[in-house]
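Team,

Forwarding the record for the chain on the shared tracking sheet. I've put the sequence and predicted structure together so nobody has to dig through attachments.
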Amino acid sequence: MGKKSIIVLLSVVPFIFMLAAIPFVNRVQPIIFGLPFLAFWLFFGMLITPLCTFTIYKLQKSERSAE
């Protein structure tokens, strides 16, 4: 898998995680760390999104330095 396809995949993951999956995870049970499942899902999404963005930044930076 090339760098460009990894970048595209990492760009799509936060969108799917925060918007497309919401109808499927919109429930109260189970309670995780004292949070309803939807609140935990959104909190976890807030952690995943910057990680994806940082990884995209590092991949693009290494791609530019190779040129």
